[in-house]
């Protein structure tokens, strides 16, 4: 196996702090021309002697490694479970059929205690037009940045990435938050926070908020003594059929009343005629 350390062929994080026994997902961005190529994860510091762990066309049966390829965003993601102290040196690699493979090295700093840089969740979901906040902790030094994989970065306190407002708050020691405001569908993808020499990848998924059949609008009714009650606002689509039903019931009642009155008049007329005839 021969590899070439691609400068522009593959983009990923360089060093991630992780906790032994846990898991980590690493995104690897590749060029458009490699969309349909096989991708794989290789373990070892020297890329000439690293060992295959999982490939997009050959899953790992042990369950320690997994890989997925998002061809639309041109990112394949490798996940390493049950992290051990020797899980330190890896390569994201694109297989080239007619030449040397392209690879990019990343390092895992495995610790038995808390990682030096970590977030509450590596996967987070937000809704179109709304905000999402990523919560993180750190124990190392350096400036905090929020970057899109293969894109631009924002430094504290605020900035913009692809039209999405980004605000970084690190006023509390060893704690930080990153808020992305005005999310769009295009905001979905892999990002990472940077603190000093460490990075932590975070995947953001932006969806449409599910619509509900209930109308949560309200109206306020106030009595003469200024006591107000908030009541649900009835939909117009419901008012129209109800009004029609009431009208039909009123018409039917009126017709029934008139028919009953008419029948009583006829019966009274026949009884009068019968009494009149009896006199003869």
Features:
280 residues; alpha+beta; Immunoglobulin-like; 2 domains; six-stranded mixed sheet; five-stranded antiparallel sheet; 44% strand; elongated; membrane
Give a description of the structure.
The structure is a single chain. The protein is an alpha+beta fold and 280 residues long. The chain folds into two domains: 3-111, Sandwich (Immunoglobulin-like); 117-207, Sandwich (Immunoglobulin-like). The chain has one helix spanning 236-278, and strands at 3-5, 10-11, 15-19, 24-30, 39-43, 51-55, 65-70, 75-80, 89-94, 101-111, 117-119, 123-127, 132-138, 144-148, 153-155, 158-161, 164-169, 175-181, 189-195, 198-207, 218-222, 228-232. Strands 1, 3, 5, 6, 9 and 10 form a six-stranded mixed beta sheet that branches. A hairpin with a 2-residue loop joins strand 19 (189-195) and strand 20 (198-207). The radius of gyration is 35 Å and the shape is elongated. The chain starts with a strand and ends with a helix.
């Amino acid at each position: 196996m021969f590899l070439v350390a691609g400068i522009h062929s593959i983009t990923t994080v360089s060093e991630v702090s992780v906790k032994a026994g846990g898991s980590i997902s690493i995104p690897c961005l590749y060029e458009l021309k490699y969309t349909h190529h096989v991708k794989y994860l290789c373990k070892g510091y020297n890329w000439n002697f690293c060992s295959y762990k999982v490939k997009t066309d050959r899953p790992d049966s042990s369950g320690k490694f997994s890989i997925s390829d998002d061809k639309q965003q041109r990112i394949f993601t490798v996940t390493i479970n049950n992290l051990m102290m020797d899980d330190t040196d890896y390569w994201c690699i694109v297989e080239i059929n007619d030449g040397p493979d392209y690879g990019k090295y990343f390092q895992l700093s495995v610790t038995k205690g808390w990682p030096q840089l970590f977030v509450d969740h590596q996967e987070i979901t937000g809704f179109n037009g709304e905000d999402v906040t990523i919560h993180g902790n750190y124990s190392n030094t350096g400036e905090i940045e929020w970057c899109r994989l293969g894109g631009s970065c924002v430094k504290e306190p605020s900035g913009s990435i692809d039209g999405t407002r980004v605000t970084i708050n690190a006023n509390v020691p060893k704690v930080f938050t990153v808020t992305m405001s005005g999310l769009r569908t295009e905001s979905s993808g892999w990002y990472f926070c940077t603190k000093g020499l460490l990075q932590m990848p975070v995947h953001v998924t932006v969806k449409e908020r599910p619509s509900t059949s209930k109308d949560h609008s309200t109206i306020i009714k106030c009595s003469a003594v200024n006591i107000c009650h908030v009541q649900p606002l009835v939909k117009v689509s419901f008012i129209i059929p109800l009004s029609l039903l009431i009208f039909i019931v009123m018409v039917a009642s009126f017709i029934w009343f008139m028919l009953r009155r008419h029948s009583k008049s006829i019966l009274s007329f026949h009884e009068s005629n019968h009494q009149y005839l009896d006199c003869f």
